[in-house]
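Quick illustration, no need to memorize.
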Amino acid sequence: YGNLGRNALIGPGAANVDVGLSKIIHVYESHQFELRGEFFDLLNRPNFGNPVATFVSPAFGQILSATTTRQIQLALKYSF
Protein backbone atom coordinates (compact mmCIF):
# COMPACT_ATOMS: atom_id res chain seq x y z
CA TYR A 1 0.00 0.00 0.00
CA GLY A 2 2.98 2.30 -0.31
CA ASN A 3 3.16 4.80 2.51
CA LEU A 4 -0.50 4.48 3.48
CA GLY A 5 -1.02 4.50 7.25
CA ARG A 6 -2.16 1.59 9.38
CA ASN A 7 -5.91 0.75 9.29
CA ALA A 8 -6.53 3.12 6.40
CA LEU A 9 -8.97 0.67 4.79
CA ILE A 10 -11.83 -0.06 7.17
CA GLY A 11 -14.63 -2.49 6.41
CA PRO A 12 -18.17 -2.54 7.80
CA GLY A 13 -18.69 -3.57 11.42
CA ALA A 14 -20.06 -6.91 12.53
CA ALA A 15 -22.86 -7.58 15.01
CA ASN A 16 -24.14 -10.99 16.01
CA VAL A 17 -26.62 -12.12 18.68
CA ASP A 18 -26.67 -15.84 19.59
CA VAL A 19 -29.22 -17.14 22.12
CA GLY A 20 -29.74 -20.55 23.71
CA LEU A 21 -32.77 -21.62 25.77
CA SER A 22 -33.23 -24.90 27.59
CA LYS A 23 -35.87 -26.53 29.78
CA ILE A 24 -35.32 -29.64 31.93
CA ILE A 25 -38.41 -31.79 32.53
CA HIS A 26 -38.16 -34.44 35.25
CA VAL A 27 -40.06 -37.68 34.49
CA TYR A 28 -38.97 -40.10 37.24
CA GLU A 29 -36.39 -39.94 40.01
CA SER A 30 -33.36 -40.15 37.73
CA HIS A 31 -35.05 -39.80 34.31
CA GLN A 32 -35.33 -36.44 32.62
CA PHE A 33 -35.80 -34.73 29.28
CA GLU A 34 -33.91 -31.63 28.19
CA LEU A 35 -35.51 -29.51 25.47
CA ARG A 36 -33.05 -27.05 23.94
CA GLY A 37 -33.33 -24.33 21.30
CA GLU A 38 -30.40 -22.37 19.91
CA PHE A 39 -30.75 -19.31 17.70
CA PHE A 40 -27.77 -18.04 15.73
CA ASP A 41 -27.91 -14.46 14.37
CA LEU A 42 -31.23 -13.91 16.15
CA LEU A 43 -31.76 -10.41 14.72
CA ASN A 44 -31.11 -11.65 11.15
CA ARG A 45 -28.75 -8.73 10.47
CA PRO A 46 -26.46 -9.07 7.43
CA ASN A 47 -22.74 -8.79 8.21
CA PHE A 48 -20.94 -7.73 5.06
CA GLY A 49 -17.37 -8.72 4.26
CA ASN A 50 -14.48 -6.36 3.68
CA PRO A 51 -14.23 -4.46 0.41
CA VAL A 52 -11.77 -5.65 -2.23
CA ALA A 53 -8.43 -3.98 -1.41
CA THR A 54 -6.44 -4.89 -4.53
CA PHE A 55 -5.88 -1.67 -6.49
CA VAL A 56 -5.61 -3.38 -9.89
CA SER A 57 -8.87 -5.30 -9.42
CA PRO A 58 -11.89 -4.06 -11.39
CA ALA A 59 -13.95 -4.68 -8.23
CA PHE A 60 -11.75 -2.41 -6.06
CA GLY A 61 -13.72 -0.97 -3.15
CA GLN A 62 -16.76 -3.19 -3.71
CA ILE A 63 -18.15 -5.55 -1.07
CA LEU A 64 -18.72 -8.98 -2.62
CA SER A 65 -19.58 -11.21 0.35
CA ALA A 66 -21.86 -11.48 3.37
CA THR A 67 -22.37 -13.93 6.23
CA THR A 68 -25.15 -16.48 6.48
CA THR A 69 -28.66 -15.66 7.68
CA ARG A 70 -30.46 -16.76 10.85
CA GLN A 71 -30.16 -20.42 11.82
CA ILE A 72 -32.29 -22.26 14.39
CA GLN A 73 -31.32 -25.55 16.03
CA LEU A 74 -33.60 -27.68 18.23
CA ALA A 75 -32.60 -30.67 20.39
CA LEU A 76 -34.27 -33.13 22.74
CA LYS A 77 -32.15 -35.20 25.12
CA TYR A 78 -33.28 -38.06 27.36
CA SER A 79 -31.10 -38.84 30.37
CA PHE A 80 -31.50 -41.85 32.66
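DSSP finds no helices and three strands in the chain.
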